Amino acid sequence: MNSTNNTGFEHLVAIMARLRGPGGCPWDAEQTHESLKRYLLEETYEVIEAIDAQSPELLKEELGDLLLQPLFHAAIAEEKGTFTIQDVIETLCSKLIRRHPHVFGDMKIENSAAQIENWEQIKKNEKGDERKSALSGVPPHLPALLKAQKITEKAARVGFDWEHVDQVVAKVMEELHEFEEAMAGGDNGRMEAELGDLLFAIVNLGRFLSINPEEALRKTINRFQQRFSHVEDALHSLGRQLNETPLEEMDRLWEEAKRLERMDEKQ
Are residues 258 and 230 in the same domain? Predict the structure, then answer.
């Protein structure tokens, strides 16, 4: 295949067509919109991992892998005669221009908050009667914490929100108390409901403080894994196993890992 006369993007589209076409790759040719869903999610999370690693080279590679996914879906759609990758691009261009009248038109926007409000209003006008609820438009398959954040953001935009952060903290403490009561009662169904309420209140607190709860929890999980690995490595260097070590000693190594983290942050 000669790419001399192609732009990089045209070359990529041509490669995708070749993979899906006669004499191409059997695996690529077998894929459907449904079979590719898992890869779209996996590649998204790998991009996030590359951002966290602060590696431009890794991010470049992972963004390429993510870019492959819409190309794949567009190629499948083109084969079915529904739309092409050019249609996808033109639809996106039109949407960006339409939803930024302060850039491509005469509208004046004071700040990013006003832009978000205007963006939502434009979306609502575009959807018409399709979105009847202020909470409509949140993808059902989002991770639960992220979905809760989106729901509470939409509720807040129509005035369903607290005025001060101490009110949100008080709600968290109230839900914690109700969860403790449910635990004391031993009712699993009520415990599940109250734990859900507690998590939802914590998500609200994060939103109120402009902290992404999904991101916050993901970073905590990463820190837990790093500290746990430190404990494992320290014990293995002594020829010992986790299940043979008293909890007090594992706690000591855990605190040591935290101290090392703080030292790294200061450097």
Answer: yes
Residue 119 is assigned to a structural domain of this protein: no
Give tens-digit pLDDT for 25-35.
999 999 999 99
Query: Own/partner pairs for 82-88, CB < 8 Å, 24+ apart?
Result: 85/13
Residue 142 DSSP symbol: S
Q: What is the pTM of this model?
A: 0.69
The answer to whether residues 24 and 75 touch, using CB atoms and an 8 Å cutoff, is: no
Nearest-5° angle of CA 123, CA 125, CA 127? 70
Q: Tell me what the mean pLDDT of segment 52-63 comes to.
A: 95
Residue 145 domain-assigned (yes or no): yes
Whichever domain contains 71, its CATH number is 1.10.287.1080
pLDDT at 7: 83
Alpha-carbon distance of 133 to 251, in angstroms, equals 49
20/89 same-domain check:
yes
